[in-house]
Amino acid sequence: MKSSHKTAGIYNRWLFTLGGGEQVTFAYAEALRDAGYKTTLVTHKKVDVESAEKKMGVSLTDIELRYEPLRPVTELSGISQEYDLFINTSYLDYFPNRSSNGFLSVFFPAEIYLSLWEWCKRTIFLPSLKLLFIYPTDYSGFSHDTFEEGKICKWLGESSEISFSNQTIYSLAIELHVPTFAVSIVESLVFFINKKTVSPDRKRLNHTTNTLRYFFCSSEPIVNFAITHKKWKIQKISLVKLTIPKWRYYLYNIFKLLFPKWEMRLHGGPGVTSLSDIQSYKRIITISKFCQYWIKQYWGLESEVLYPPVNTSVFLPAKNKQNWICHIGRFFVTGHSKKQLELIRVFKELVDSKQLIDWQLHLIGSVHEGANHEAYYKACLNEALGYPIQFHCEAPFVEVREVLSKSKIYWHATGLDEDQKKQPILMEHFGITTVEAMASGCVPIVINAGGQPEIVIAESGFTWNNREELKEYTARVANNSELRQQLSIAAKKRSAYFSKKKFRERFLKILKSNQKT
User: Fold this and answer.
1) How close are the terminal C-alpha atoms of the chain, in Å?
2) pLDDT digits over 16-73, tens only?
3) Phi/psi of residue 239, each to 5°?
């Protein structure tokens, strides 16, 4: 299998996000490197290698990171022909492949046969809105986001950047919040415009709110604004407001408030793709049989299922588990919402009916940026008042692992009240967190939709079709320790089927069969 002279390139536009899709990208890279390929990860935004290795549980030794200028996906085809094997793992980026061995890794297929309205939206309306509005196209280098007092707080990392595509911004203002004010914190900040060090034209300090407001002007268009904070690990500062004195920026914020789904499309989403672009890849690989079915429906093409790798070895059941039900998922209301509000209401009904006594619900997840998402999180907080429900917002991995370890039951409800036949994209396409929970010894009680029933089989948990079944199965497991122990052991055993080791074995088998064709 060793073939050190061969090269492999793996593309992912979103690599910097270090999410579930990126976990798959890194797994491909590790497997190819260990198989003897000179392996390169191709992306656009800087990836913190140390953070990636720590968060994703990977080793990037001898794997090259190649950064290309951010440009339309149609201009990226030339990169693929530079490699003996090219794998496109980037969500919704279906540019033509020019490698002799091109694999397309699909997390969920976009429809390519568009209605007139959808075609106009993708080719006319969205590009026009991008030209009309002034808005930040990208935030990078921030350590994390939190939702506090009705605001999204973007906490500074060592070097935090905001990018703009518009060429008419000559001034801006930022507002920073410091939990505990000290002069040394202010002095530790360095500001940059277009990679050049600058000083603020004005600054204003509010001791009552511990906020600092800085005003900047530039003689050239501002396309990049950055803040370095060398003491970011010990002195916390968050960005709470960005202001650009342009009517097109204020119009953008109104649009963002009124049409959040459209606003998200300004930052990414499916374009116009032809079937020939997809057929230029030698093989199509997808993450579940659920996705495989929709690839056939949307594209009329065959594909192979390669379940995502889950680092099951780092999740272990606690010796003394608690009466906890847990759930993991971002708080947001567009796309495949995780339905935390509905789960809170189900939990309350179980408590009120005395079917659950001395049990807690633990909800883990970040809050997606945007007023509607913030309002949804606040609604969840209000709905939970007076009940044993805990929120772990922006929890570090150590805390996530601890909650999973101590929990006895795991809930998942993505797709609840949605029509799977009409809107399959709103389902959970696989469900890595479900596998992580099972590896932690949680009994999964998950919705019978999307990729979830491929993970949870009869002897390892329950899949439900409606709220009544969710309540019935939860009460049964919660109040029967023998059944719970039996399912917990089976769930942990089942989780091994989706381990990184299994992923590698299956991928190398695909690779070997590809070499024979």
Assistant:
1) 15
2) 888 888 999 999 999 999 999 999 999 988 888 888 888 888 999 999 999 988 776 6
3) -85, 120
pLDDT in tens, 57-116: 899 999 999 998 877 666 788 899 999 999 999 988 889 999 999 999 999 998 887 788
User: Which 3-state string (H, E, C) describes 54-104?
Assistant: HHHCCCCCCEEEEECCCCCHHHCHHHHCCCCEEEECCCCCCCCCCCCCEEE
In total, the chain counts a number of residues equal to 517
- Contact by Cβ (8 Å): 67, 46: yes
- Over residues 396-436, the pLDDT tens digits come to 889 999 999 999 999 999 999 999 999 999 999 999 999 99
Contact yes or no for 338/365 (Cβ under 8 A): yes
Two structure tokens written together for 72: 């339309």
CA dist 376 and 366 (Å) reads 12
Is the confidence at residue 141, as pLDDT, over 90? no
Cβ-count burial 427-463 (b if 16+ within 10 Å, e if not): bbbbbbbbbbbbbbbbbbbbbebbbbbbbbeeebbbb
Do the beta carbons of residue 159 and residue 228 sit within 8 Å?
Answer: yes
In 3D space, the residue among 242, 201, 202 whose CA is nearest the CA of residue 219 turns out to be 201
What single DSSP character describes residue 190?
E
Torsion of CA 396, 398, 399, 401, to 10 degrees: 120
Q: Give the separation between CA 388 and CA 361, rounded to whole angstroms.
A: 7
Vertex 73: Cα angle to 291 and 124 (nearest 5): 90
Model confidence, pTM: 0.81
The CA–CA distances, whole Å, from 322 to 318, 473, 479 equal 9, 18, 13
Distance CA 13, CA 42 (A): 8
**Ordered DSSP codes for 206-217:** ETTTTEEEEEEE
Angle at 433 between CA 503 and CA 21, to 5 degrees: 55
- 21 and 91 in contact (C-beta within 8 Å)? yes
